[in-house]
Amino acid sequence: MDPFMQQLEEQEQALEQIRHKLALLPDMPGCYLMKNSEGTIIYVGKAKVLKNRVRSYFIGSHNGKTQRLVSEIRDFEYIVTGSNMEALILECNLIKKHMPRYNVLLKDDKTFPYLKITNEKHPRLEVTRRVLKDKAKYFGPYPNSYAAHQTKKLLDRMYPLRKCGVMPKEVCLYYHMGQCLAPCVKDIGKEQYDEISQEIGSFLSGGHEEIKKDLQRKMQEAAEDLYFERAKELRDQVIAIDAIMEKQKITMADARDRDVFGFAIDKGWMCVQILYMRQGKMIERHVSTFPFYGEAYSDFMSYVTQYYSDNPALPQEILLPEMPKELLIGEHDTDSAHLHDVNTPEHGQAAVTSESTQEEQPLEANPVMAAEPLVAETRVAYEASTAEETKSDAADELHSEAETEAANAKLPSEQEDPSQMAAALQEWLEIKVHIPQRGLKRQMITMALDNARVALEEKFRLIERNEERTSKASEGLGRWIGLEQLRRIEAFDNSNIQGTNPVSAMIVFTDGKPDKKEYRKYKVRSVEGPDDYETMREVIRRRYERVLKENLTQPDLIVVDGGKGQISAAVDVLENELGLFIPVCGLVKDAKHKTSQLMIGNPPEVIALPRDSQEFYLLQRIQEEVHRFAISFHREQRGKSMVTSRLDAIPGIGEKRRKLLLKHFGSLRKIKEASVEDFRPLSIGDKLANQIIAALRDEES
């Protein structure tokens, strides 16, 4: 049977099986696992009603990316849970376990730096990106490494915790500077360390004002006692605290720690923005851009869940956007060229940049604008304190809940309720999770949404700009060498060391971009010794004989690595042996092995390309890429030949035994270090084993 027809028949059988399973789906919350033809899990999702959500994949039309996911589904499983919260946690765990291809995966997003007070007899303060269950105290995450290290530098000056990794035998310079208690030579009590840890925790949790006042008091006392050097040290610490804590951008009336989320979608891509607000001030933002394949809001919530699954330092409140109106009415098309402004506010526009927010009345901007915010967050359980919320805020929240419920009433049956997802997240994390509809919190959400939209627009503009630049460079190069069209370029380079293991490589650039599926490698067969011209003749002959024989696409330009000799060799084979008249140019390198000149024609002449032009940059990329490809292939062949010669020279070792030895031991070094007994499982006698070991060791010496 034709393979295509067989595949079609298997697909029909799988869909028939899926239809039977769809009829048995329960009206309960849970998780579902989509599988491909090989039984691999390719997507994990959650649903408040499994029957509605899973059926929606196989009923009606979908956008391009979701359709690609559905086309690969050959089976599914489901796990019923007792609540939405259980489904939320289970989905997160299943995604981490199976790493499905079509799920939103946080690959690098959880490597934020934290400050850590180690759980040791003599604790240390350090910056780490690994959060372990080791009973240490963690503070963070910080927006970047610089922020974490700058804060640690300040705390090291203020609090005399141990600095050294291994305890020295005598006191170090830190002790004499007053920055270490010298536990290497003194007995330091646990109470003293607990007091220091508590003060550091208080500082990082927002109690820096009290600590600053205490330092100012000590500074005054030192000045009055004429200890001016000590007073200067304390003054510098106060200045450092001000410098770190004032590097904020936006403030709110209260002093809560919040994470504010927003997202935008377009062309099958999602951009999530997180605004970090600590002590009521926005200190930094984090951006993640990735393709998504499921329902937009559900995949967004999957991202949020994964983000907090390994985060030991939670804010007091999480602010989430509502369901986009385009998704509510079911008219959003992620493949459209127009970028929708998700959740456009009805109560005024919030600015995208921190500078423009200075003009907004509800948000207070700090006059000090710094590029690197340096404040950490700490894990604090949310405490309901209505005294901190004004009556108007409470009224806004009540109104917000009413609006959210009204919006959720419009949801299609297969879509999950955002308020229920937020409630599940709140129950799991045990902190407040809120979807604001108006007021200051709504404006912060709008800022996150606008930033996400702008970041996604910039991503697509950058892609378009790069494509335009590379295609224009290709067209411009064609004009320089007199070609009406220049789309496909094939480039060649040879590689050998004194004629040993000679190889050649060909790469292809289409419209100014590498087309790696078209790359080819050649082992040189007929050339003896380091003859670059004859190597070029052989490879050009082999390549374009095959092009003619198999009617493959011919290039608009052939590029060889070299000058007149290489160009003449290639042209001679093409025109006189194969009857092909394809332009051939050569790239000549300078003394530093960098692209220097472009030569073309018969006889070859130099084309005076400007060194700072996009056309010259394209040629540099081509020459560097073909050289890289040829060198890597040559090293691979040389490594194989070295292994072959060293083992094949031993009597009694043929190709089969050589492969068996390398497979069993992994490398020549391990074979050489093995004992006679290690060879017995391979049915190699003691005599031959001794010969192998002796031969390898003698060759080494």
Structure characterization notes:
It is found in: Cytoplasm. Residues 337-370, 383-421 are annotated as: Disordered. This is UvrABC system protein C. One of its GO terms (molecular function) is DNA binding. This protein is of the alpha+beta class and 701 residues long. The protein is 44% helix and 17% strand. Strands 14, 15, 16, 17, 18, 19, 20 and 21 form an 8-stranded mixed sheet that branches. Strands 12-7-10-9-8-11-13 form a 7-stranded mixed sheet. The longest helix has 42 residues, at 439-480. It is globular. Mean pLDDT is 78; it is low at 330-395.
Write down the Rg.
34 Å
Helix content: 40-55%
Task: Indicate the structural class.
Answer: alpha+beta
Number of domains: 5
Count of DSSP E strands? 21
Low-pLDDT segments = 330-395
- In percent, how much strand structure appears in the residues? 15-25%
Number of helices: 20
Shape: globular
Mean pLDDT: 78
The separation of the N and C termini measures 61 Å
